[in-house]
Amino acid sequence: MNVRRWSWLTLIGNDRFALKIVALAVALVLWATMLGRKDITVVHRMSLQFLINPSLELHSPRQREVEVEVAGTRMALKRFNAVAPVFPVDLGELGPGNHNVRLDAGTLNLPVGLKVVGIRPQMLALSLRRSSERHAQ
């Protein structure tokens, strides 16, 4: 009865041992990559930054902050948190009067790997008036 004993020396001497090590390394790299790719969703409160025609002024903004829900990788969220994010609202095309403005996620400067999932509120009610009207009253 010839019983073959397995030991580390016979395992290392096996010509498939190197292939097993390479397969293990590839599996670990894939596992680490997939683990880092999991998207995280976070809600940020952002201050509104109104971009207005110089001849106009904002009279009655009821909202000064919005909640923006973003999703992405951990690294992208860290880069996003590193800067004090503001939400720009371009009012340059609007004239005096009352307006309902839809907030557009395209105006945000997001790091690669982040996407906007939602904005609350999506619409802003505001009033613009000419700058000279304030001084005349």
**Largest beta-sheet details:** 4 strands, mixed
Assign the CATH topology: RNA Polymerase Alpha Subunit, Chain A, domain 2
- Given helix and strand content, the structural type is alpha+beta
Q: How confident is the prediction overall: mean pLDDT?
A: 82
Q: Please, how many helices?
A: 4
Number of domains: 1
For the largest sheet, list the strands in their spatial order: 4-1-3-6
- The termini sit apart by 111 Å
Percent in strands: 35-45%
Helix content, binned percent = 25-40%
The secondary-structure element order is HHEEEHEEEEH
Number of strands: 7
What coarse outline follows from CA principal-axis ratios? Answer: rod-shaped
Rg is 29 Å
Low-confidence runs (pLDDT<50, min 5 residues)? none
Provide the descriptors you would attach to this structure in a database record.
137 residues, alpha+beta, four-stranded mixed β-sheet, rod-shaped
If you had to describe this structure to a student in words, what would you say it looks like?
This protein is α+β, with helices and mostly antiparallel strands and 137 residues long. The chain has a single domain, classed as RNA Polymerase Alpha Subunit, Chain A, domain 2 (Beta Complex), CATH 2.170.120.30. It contains four helices and seven strands. Strands 4-1-3-6 form a four-stranded mixed sheet. Strands 2-7-5 form a three-stranded antiparallel sheet. The N and C termini lie far apart (111 Å).
